[in-house]
Design brief:
42% helix
């Protein structure tokens, strides 16, 4: 019972101290409340743009752009109109399942550390 009252008293104290940092607003008039709500909604909508936009490019993006060609085309267009590259198929097994992990791939396999 004592712990419950201590918990209740501390929660009231913390909620009051938090509320002291908030702007004061006391209104009983519904029109004034609606006006305040509209104002706050407008402020919230101005926090970020309606569509995600990049304000500036990161240093990595600037560096990478140096190495990309500016005249790139979509992948499907490249597949349709691009040059066919000849290659030999060594093994054709459509049911092959690549292993996720095998123990001998680890550096400690075979005594190496």
């Amino acid at each position: 019972m004592i712990t419950m009252s201590i918990l209740l008293a501390s929660s009231v104290y913390f909620s009051r101290s938090y509320a002291q940092g908030l702007p004061k607003f006391h209104a009983s008039d519904p029109e004034e409340v609606n006006k305040r709500v509209e104002e706050l909604v407008k402020r919230l909508s101005q926090l970020e743009p309606p569509e995600p936009t990049s304000i500036m490019k990161s240093p990595e993006e600037v560096e990478i752009q140096k190495y990309y060609h500016s005249n790139t085309i979509p992948i499907l267009e490249g597949m349709d109109k691009g040059t066919e590259i000849k290659f030999k198929v060594i093994m054709n097994d459509p049911n092959y399942k690549r292993p996720i992990y095998e123990n001998h791939w680890h550096r400690t396999y075979g005594g190496g550390r």
